[in-house]
Specification:
The structure holds two protein chains of two kinds. Chain A is an all-alpha fold. Chain A has a domain of about 240 residues. By secondary structure, chain B is mostly helical. Chain B is built from 13 helices and two strands, in the order ααααβααβααααααα. The model of chain B has no long low-confidence stretch (mean pLDDT about 85). Chains A and B meet through helix 1, helix 5, helix 6, helix 13 and helix 15 of A and helix 3, helix 4, helix 11 and helix 13 of B.
């Protein structure tokens, strides 16, 4: 197979191109703001100030980022194995069930530092199991993982709605959610870290899940680039045929990758459920699983990139809330557009600017992009 | 007689509910048969619904609304084509992006233009497609058995409903009896062969996506201008994905697609009709189970337990010319 494009230097590949894609996505979003009749530059200023201007804003930004780190890692782990896990949303949603069971059983007996590990296990196991069936069907039956995980998102939503308007709802309550957790299932806040830097914080939900997310990012890096399993996953993702010849079991690698992906998706639920709302409510994931796709693509599937991209999206979510307050014409749905544009430009159109940038690099120093080698082959 | 009337009414709402699924499903058929996966059916329907209702209410014409729905929906299909055909991007990623852009922009623009919380103004008579009463429907209505079937089931739908069902034989004819259809199917199975024959793979796939855009536009217009008297945010509510499920369920065949959509429409209609009231033998079935049933059935089908669903061979793979 022919390689469409020659290699760029790493900093251009991992830094410049994502930034250009991001820039274009924002320019297009700016046109939408213009169409609505507002000033895009002023909107951008309000957005950034809302996200980083005050201590509370930063705490909220990092709170949202925590959620997106989990979902971004989830999408990335599967993607390294060549699988598109579009079911992060459903895996996180159904994991709320595991957390609900743990928290409702133990919140009156155990302190948070015992409930938390139990909930981590419960959420990741439930998330992994929800990913297991599509993974098995892909590996054994050849059912397309994208379609099955989409279907599982809807099935998960139906199950959760059924449980939350029925069995899990406390008697006499109208709201479709579990009862509020007691102190034993409330995670401690991390706002004091930001306060160390002298910023003031009025209640913000940033909690220990942020640290868990960073640990997971490190572990994913370790897994993908420093273990045999990760190597096998990347091999399979790069070329299933090569992996088969190398004696890697297709079934095992697909199922393992999807279960890890599902577990990471499941852990996402800890952040809003135990860190913020202290109950499991209908639609608590609210699209974070899909944001994970944007985050993973933006971060080029590398944990460092994912953490940065997650903070960027956290900024959009927090700043977007401020923006909606300042410019009523622009509601938070503006973020959904930006998210879509980022997925479009950083994901589907990632190669659009590459030839131009490559030509630019080639005009400065042909050797750096391997142009000579290509010419030598007579291509 | 009561039971009979209940059955007729349920079937009537089955038809109404399956029309958007059918149009979207046939839309997906064109693109997937040409080798382009389209997760973005949902988004294209949504922009179609918004553009249709918005244009109809501004220009006071249902047909202008329909035209605008088709135009905008085709434009989104072209974005999908630009990303996945011209730039050989990942088709699924592109489809996901389209769904997001559609979901966000319909709300933002709707709010900015009409200030009704993302809704478009309620459509007046003449701005939406009215029901067509077949000749003699009123006269025959009281005749037992035939009367209700003729007057309620066959007559009394809008033009888009009949159009949707006429699209089934038409799509079959296009795909299996025309040169364009033969080439379209070939490009989904073996694009290299089509290329060797001197036919442009890209242009053929673009044309398939135009068909997709037209049909999703009509599907969207049906939602906002027939089923509902205006656009409501997120009104597609997963119908694009159910259509995708129906497409797999139908094994990428037009007539099967109609039956799959009628089945899924029937499940929806039955869920609404039962509303948690108990069934004989089975007992009470949760509404959520009925809603999840299309997805569960599709997964079971995909697992190969009800025959085998084999997608077009070149589906999802961008075509790269040998160099």
């Amino acid at each position: 197979m022919s390689t469409p494009y020659a290699k760029l230097p790493a900093w251009a590949d991992y830094g410049l191109i994502p930034l250009i894609n991001l820039f274009v996505a924002f320019v297009v979003a700016g046109f939408v703001v213009l169409l609505v009749g507002e000033n895009p530059l002023r909107a951008a200023v309000i957005l950034v100030e809302g996200a980083f201007g005050k201590g509370t804003g930063i705490a909220f930004t990092l709170f949202y980022a925590t959620t997106f780190i989990f979902t971004g890692l989830s999408v990335a782990v599967a993607a390294h194995c060549g699988l598109f896990n579009i079911g992060t949303e459903g895996q996180a949603y159904i994991a709320g069930l595991g957390i609900a069971v743990v928290c409702l059983s133990f919140d009156s007996v155990l302190p948070w530092w015992l409930t938390f590990p139990l909930a981590i296990v419960a959420s990741s196991v439930v998330g992994a199991l929800w990913a297991l069936i599509p993974a098995y069907l892909q590996a054994k039956r050849g059912s397309h993982i994208v379609i099955t995980t989409i279907m599982f998102n809807f099935i998960a939503a139906s199950i959760m709605v059924y449980l939350l308007v029925g069995p899990l709802k406390p008697a006499g309550s109208q709201a479709p959610q579990t009862r509020n957790f007691l102190a034993g299932a409330e995670l401690p806040k991390l706002n004091w870290i930001i306060e160390l830097f002298g910023a003031k914080i009025r209640s913000a939900p940033l909690n220990v899940c942020f640290l868990l997310a960073l640990v997971m990012a490190f572990l994913v890096w370790l897994l993908i680039w420093r273990t045999k399993l990760g190597y096998e996953m990347r091999t399979y993702g790069h070329s299933p045929k090569a992996a088969r010849y190398a004696g890697i079991s297709e079934t095992r690698i697909i199922i393992t990758a999807m279960m890890i992906s599902g577990a990471l998706a499941g852990m996402m639920a800890l952040n809003p459920v135990m860190g913020d709302q202290h109950n499991v409510a209908i639609d608590f994931v609210s699209g974070a699983g899909f944001v994970g796709i944007a985050v993973a693509l933006m971060g080029r599937l590398h944990p460092v990139g994912i953490v940065l991209a997650a903070i960027l999206f956290g900024m959009l979510y927090q700043g977007g809330a401020e923006l909606a307050f300042e410019m009523p014409a622009i509601s938070r749905d503006m973020i959904v557009i930006i998210q879509g544009l980022v997925i479009l430009f950083a994901g589907a159109l990632e190669h659009m600017f590459r030839p131009y940038i490559q030509a630019l690099f080639a005009s400065f120093s042909p050797r750096s992009v391997g142009m000579e080698a290509v010419k030598g082959k007579g291509a | 007689m009561d039971v009979f009337n209940a059955i007729v009414q349920t079937l009537d709402s089955t038809i109404r509910l399956s029309v958007p699924l059918l149009l979207a499903c046939l839309a997906g058929l064109y693109s997937e048969r040409a080798g382009i996966f389209d997760i973005g059916l949902e988004g294209k329907m949504l922009v179609g619904a918004f553009a249709g209702a918005a244009a109809a209410s501004v220009f006071h014409s249902a047909f202008l609304g329909l035209g605008m729905a088709i135009l905008i929906s085709v434009a989104f299909a072209m974005v999908h084509g630009f990303a996945s055909i011209t730039h050989r991007g990942n088709q699924i990623v592109s489809g996901v992006a389209i769904n997001f852009i559609a979901a966000g922009s319909t709300i933002i623009l709707g709010q900015a233009w009409f200030q009704q919380g993302g809704r478009t103004p309620a459509l007046q008579p003449g701005e939406r497609f009215e029901a067509i009463t077949w000749p003699g429907a009123d006269a025959i209505h009281d005749v037992p058995i035939i009367g209700p079937i003729y007057a309620e089931l066959l007559s009394g739908h809008s033009i888009l409903v009949y159009l949707a069902f006429l699209m089934v034989p038409f799509t079959w004819w296009v795909l299996f009896r025309t040169r364009f259809g033969l080439r379209l199917r070939a490009v989904g199975e073996n694009p290299a062969a089509v290329d060797t024959a001197g036919i442009s793979v890209a242009w053929l796939r673009y044309r398939a996506l135009i068909c997709t855009g037209v049909l999703t536009g009509i599907a969207g217009a049906y939602l906002s201008m027939v089923q509902n008297g205006g656009f409501v945010k997120d009104m597609t509510a997963g119908k694009g994905y159910i259509a995708l499920a129906a497409l797999i369920f139908a094994k990428w065949k037009p007539v099967n697609a109609m039956f799959a959509c009628l089945l899924f429409g029937f499940l929806d209609a039955a869920a609404i009709r039962l509303q948690g009231s108990p069934l004989p033998i089975i007992g009470k079935v949760p509404v959520q189970f009925m809603q999840a049933l299309p997805y569960i059935l599709t997964v079971i089908l995909l697992a190969g337990f009800i025959g085998k669903a084999i997608p077009p061979r070149a589906g999802g793979v961008p075509y790269v010319k040998e160099r």
